[in-house]
């Protein structure tokens, strides 16, 4: 088992007034030579968007983009005709494929939005762009994994153009949960959204992330009530 710990306090940061992002990986003006990607996981931004804040229309291509909101409501529009508003409990995915333009805006003029935006390199390049979103019942992730993104039909999740899987759990203090790879040889980028856990003797706190590879099964124990995101991802 190989691990790499990315502490929340060591993330890149920026302040644009309406937007305050934290970067787990090199992005924009933030560059760290040891934090460019984790396998096929290229971007994980922890964003705070003030009331009225908006990402103006901009292009993407050949990237799988997943958005997970925690508070507030985010409005999306894109050149495929995709549009929607997402909030806590919702997951959004966009396959940029051959090219797409989109905008994202805080749906409120006053209340902030907090979210993760995650970019994954695609399995197949130049597919037809697509957009999807779905609401998930947060009660269904208490002390168990709730799969929200996966290419496997049996997972009943949002489809992704990659051998990757995104799972969420709310793990109560003292409980242990096992993670088993859906794809042998993948790595897992485990993000502690809130709380704290222990993984193979490594303590991982709020907004810390632990990259785990060279193992297909491992256990996680909650040392506090914890909210977790597991991003299973091909390593090459």
Structure characterization notes:
- The chain has 236 residues and is mainly β.
- The protein folds into two domains: 11-135, Jelly Rolls, CATH 2.60.120.10; 138-233, Jelly Rolls, CATH 2.60.120.10.
- The protein is 0% helix and 52% strand.
- The protein has strands spanning 2-6, 12-13, 19-23, 41-49, 54-60, 64-71, 73-78, 83-87, 90-95, 100-106, 113-120, 130-135, 146-149, 165-171, 176-180, 187-194, 197-199, 202-204, 209-213, 217-222, 226-233.
- Strands 2-3-4-11-6-9-12 form a seven-stranded antiparallel beta sheet, with no helix packed on it.
- A hairpin with a 4-residue loop joins strand 7 and strand 8 (83-87).
- It is globular and about 45 Å long.
- The relative contact order is 0.19.
- The model has no long low-confidence stretch (mean pLDDT 97).
Task: State the order of secondary-structure elements, H for helix, E for strand.
Answer: EEEEEEEEEEEEEEEEEEEEE
Taking all Cα atoms into account, the compactness measure Rg is: 17 Å
Low-confidence stretches: none
Helical proportion?
under 10%
List keywords for this structure.
mainly beta, Jelly Rolls, 52% strand
Q: Can I get a quick summary?
A:
0% of the residues lie in helices and 52% in strands. The chain has strands at residues 2-6, 12-13, 19-23, 41-49, 54-60, 64-71, 73-78, 83-87, 90-95, 100-106, 113-120, 130-135, 146-149, 165-171, 176-180, 187-194, 197-199, 202-204, 209-213, 217-222, 226-233.
